[in-house]
Specification:
Rossmann fold; 13 helices; 59% helix; rod-shaped
Length: 352
């Protein structure tokens, strides 16, 4: 084990040499200086104890201690005090000195004990600082690992969400492609709804919910056999009741998906009306949130302008007239106004 290293600063040659010889005899490595300035020049973090005389020319012991404290080495300091200077000892302790020793030395055993305890404190300080440093390093390492794991988990979650949504969209698209009359319906409804959302300056989070909901709004038709919609003419009462189940079933399908909890409402209520005469719940007015009102207009507009086996599709002018006619009863008038402005502007751009 390496010898403890002690720095002595005393302008009295006799005292300084005596201390050096005694400490060397006790097995310590000693560096002796004649002033506070020289002690500060020699001082570094390798020392385990500093012994300072109080009354020295230039920097006295108190001033030297203050400068030592500023370096924050954590090295204990013992003061040497002359006879009749106990008030100095009190001041030294208040400044942070570890202990004081009266001079001339009379009891070497007590002196040795005080030095030994001071060195032991230094060892404790070094270990505590090393522990704290290692702890900080470990905390930073664990924090980085946790951040990386969270990032990977978020990436996995995002990938899972995208994969799940794409799977449902693929199934819904496959269902639409079986019927030439409904092919592309989901893509168009999504496009129209996002146009309305942009015109309304919806936030990013609302736009994400709106897009997802549009992509799966007819998912319930995968379960409900709606092949009868291809027949010419109106639906029978039994067929109509079966058709009206698809929003509720679609909402039930996505309910277990934690990342689509906001979309459930839109899927379940995309066939509701402002006047409460829609399905499946007959909600109306303020019971329908903004995004539901948006998807209702987008879905209905595509139904109006798409050819069906039981009806002829409307042209742009006819569809706009129908939107206005149903504003206030089936549709939110403000949504209709905004959407009409969008499609009319696009029509003018296309014509030019």
């Amino acid at each position: 084990m390496a010898k403890a290293k002690i720095l002595i600063a005393d302008d009295d040659n006799l005292v300084r040499d005596s201390l050096r010889k005694i400490l060397t005899m006790f097995g310590y490595q000693v560096v002796a200086c004649t002033s506070g300035e020289k002690a500060l020049a020699a001082l570094n973090g390798d020392f385990d104890l500093v012994i300072l005389d109080i009354n020295m020319p230039g920097l006295d012991g108190f001033e030297t201690l203050k400068l030592i404290n500023e370096r924050d080495y954590g090295i204990p300091v013992i003061f040497l005090t002359g006879a009749g200077s106990m008030e100095y000892a009190v001041k030294a302790i208040n400044l942070g000195a570890y202990d004081f020793i009266p001079k001339p030395l009379e009891d070497l055993d007590i002196f040795h004990i005080k030095v030994k305890r001071a060195v032991e404190k230094r060892i404790y300080v070094i270990r505590e600082r090393a522990y704290k440093e290692n702890l900080e390093i470990e905390v930073r390492r664990k924090t980085r690992e946790l951040a990386e794991k969270n990032r990977l988990l978020e990436d996995y979650s995002d990938d899972l969400e995208v994969s799940t949504l794409n799977t449902m969209l693929t199934l819904q698209t496959a269902l639409e492609e079986k019927d030439t009359y409904t092919a592309g319906h989901t893509s168009r409804v999504t496009f129209y709804a996002l146009q309305i959302g942009q015109a309304l300056r919806l936030g990013e989070a609302d736009m994400v919910v709106l897009e997802r909901a549009c992509k799966v709004h007819d998912l319930g038709k995968l379960v409900v056999d709606v092949s009868f919609i291809q027949k010419p003419g109106p639906l029978s009462e039994e067929e109509w009741q079966l058709m009206k189940k698809h929003p509720e079933i679609g909402a039930n399908i996505i309910t277990p998906l934690a990342f689509m909890q906001h979309e459930i409402t839109l899927v379940r209520h995309h066939h509701e009306r402002l006047d409460g005469k829609g399905y499946p719940c007959g909600l109306g007015g303020d019971e329908l949130n903004l995004l539901t009102r948006v998807i209702t207009v987008a879905d209905s507009y595509d139904a109006m302008t798409s050819k069906r086996s039981y009806k002829q599709n409307m042209n742009l002018k006819e569809a706009i007239a129908e939107l206005h006619r149903c504003a206030g009863s089936q549709f939110d008038p403000e949504i209709v106004r905004v959407f009409v402005e969008v499609i009319e502007a696009q029509a003018k751009t296309g014509a030019s």
